[in-house]
Amino acid sequence: MKKLHEFSIEIFADGADRAGMLEMYRNPLIKGFTTNPTLMRKAGVTDYRAFAKEILLDIKDRPISFEVFADQFDEMERQALEIASWGSNVVVKIPVTNTRGESSDKLVRRLAQASVVLNVTALMTLSQVRTSAAWLTGGPGGYISVFAGRIADTGRDPIRMMAESVKLLQAYPGVKLIWASPREVLNLFHAEMAGCHVITMTNDLLKKLSLIGKDLQEHSLDTVKMFYEDGKKAGYDLRKVAAAAAGS
Predict the structure, then answer these.
(1) Which of 8, 39, 98, 127 has an alpha carbon 20 to 30 Å from 23's alpha carbon atom?
(2) Residue 93 among the catalytic residues
(3) Is the pTM of this model over 0.90?
(4) Could you list the pLDDT tens digit for every one of the 248 residues in the chain?
(5) Which of 3, 93, 214, 240 is an active site residue?
(6) What is the dihedral of CA 28, 30, 36, 42, to 10 degrees?
(7) What is the CA 28 to chain-centroid distance, rounded?
């Protein structure tokens, strides 16, 4: 089994909790960060601009993605240009379409030509990967986020598609494929096997990386101990129930 230091894929921390982001920033294993409006809302962020600028005071030397939150392309463009101005390590996330399913291709092309580093996000088909890579041509490079975890949620195995996407992007130097929305640590191995450049992982998943290669007999025993200790802490006692039943 591969050790973490043997992986060629880069790991980006996915989240919008400031304390969690700074905790992962202290980990040299983490090569970048991604956020989105859903993660920000979940973390209780109410002022988008203030949150982003505050975290950028601490995270200056690794890429960090912030997503636009408009639905009209002209407003997406305005937001993208402002977000890009916040720091040299800022990557702007643009959804592959708006909520009406209209392609973001022209906007991506304009922003790429304006030297904005982009992360085209929420892709789930090989056709979208092919088109998005072409949109980014002529720009400073960037990322394409394929939501492999959400593809897997539909009962489809994403590994083959991700491997095909990697091959497709060989014709587009500077454009990296992200395995997004992983569901388990095993997906890190899947993404590495497929040749993906980056995988995003939440803090919960990142904290499980220490389990890689753990002896399964030991893991089994630790699990038994966890169940036992939780039962004790909860104060469960069926003897009391039996005694009460006998006295009634």
Answers:
(1) 8
(2) yes
(3) yes
(4) 888 889 999 999 999 999 999 999 999 999 999 999 999 999 999 999 999 999 999 999 999 999 999 999 999 999 999 999 999 999 999 999 999 999 999 999 999 999 999 999 999 999 999 999 999 988 999 999 999 999 999 999 999 999 999 999 999 999 999 999 999 999 999 999 999 999 999 999 999 999 999 999 999 999 999 999 999 999 999 987 666 666 66
(5) 93
(6) -70
(7) 17
